[in-house]
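dumping these here so i dont lose them again. two proteins, back to back, each one seq then structure tokens. dont judge the mess
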Amino acid sequence: MITAIVFVQCDVDQIPSVAESIVEIPEVSEVYSVTGGVDLIAMIRVRAHDELAEVITGRLAKIPGIVHTETHIAFRAYSRHDLESAFSLGLE
């Protein structure tokens, strides 16, 4: 599984509608409204790199209200949940 983190800048008054449109894309697992230099962060998960172009440039970037996107590809995932399950002895 390939994970892409997409930073999205939007027209300010369109942030909610852009977020709702992005989350309707099946490969998008989450969309966060955030503070800072970007308005939204979208988490995209696909099986192959070829799919990223279709999802990001073919669908996401064409949503009305999006001004700019910046995509980051994850190499490795670190998660407290993954570490806890890896070291769990099954005791609760």
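---- next one ----
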Amino acid sequence: MGTLSRLVIAQLLITRTSEDQIIAIVRNATKVAGLAARGIEIRQAEYGDPGAWPAALDGVDQVLLISVSGPGASRAHSSVIVAAAQPDVGRIAYMSIIHPDASSNPAGGRARRHGALIAATGIPAATLRNAWYHELHTTLLPQ
């Protein structure tokens, strides 16, 4: 679980909901023991393991999919989106990049493909387009 995920959970707890309403799906559950201790349900699923996602998303009403980069990222996101097409998921929020249609960044093509895949599921969705995660800026301030 990255910095943005932790910030989202913290904000949800402040403004929207209680611990028992949040499910954090992570690659390594030992890294988020503090969240589990607070009463947040932790489920483990690796992006690259499509078979793990249906169970991880069981009973989940809304999904925030924060895009990752690197080898296998496109397949990884697709696994989550396809699994989210199960009946329980009612909304997907997808963190993408700004202006994917005009971007020469390889992530632009990935964002376009994922947008099309999300649309094909029929699940109501919001695509959040950001240029740069602000928490990355704040970690670079000391430098």
